[in-house]
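Could you help me review a protein record that somebody else here produced? This is what I was given.
***
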Amino acid sequence: MFPGWIIDILFWVALLFLVGVYVSWRATRLDRLHVRVETARAALDAALVRRAAVALELAASRLLDPATSLVLATAAHEARTADADGREFAESDLSRALRAVVDQPEFAATLEDRGDGKAVLDELAAAAAKVVYARNFYNDAVAAARIARSKLLIRVLPLAGKAPLPDFFEIDDDPPKW
């Protein structure tokens, strides 16, 4: 019915269309993964800032001895003001300072005996737990984006554009033992 050259042209047009659809789908998926990484990073930053704020609140609450308050306030301040290169180290230092404060003998009992100490302790526990969850979500998003960007099609065709390869956020975020 149709000459052979028309069928050949229709075949190649259909093949090019399907390849274009597939490349477009992969590019859209990669873009969604990058948005997921950015969103998870924003949530992680918010959780880290919240934890530092609660640590500063605890340090300023006069519920701790002055030396402990100073150590905790310094670690929280360093975590809040750290640049991108030193952020992981500063956040790890804050985690260690929080564990040192909480591991003091009779810490929880002393806080619970004082007025709003229990509320501050609960808020600190919630903030520390949110950091753990946020960091896990962020690192999962980074892993998914890195796997997608390692595919041959993404590397051959520059589908990632100029987006930088996301890095994992590794900190010592073991929460204190309440």
Summary: The chain has a mean pLDDT of 88. Residues 142 and 159 are 17 Å apart (CA to CA).
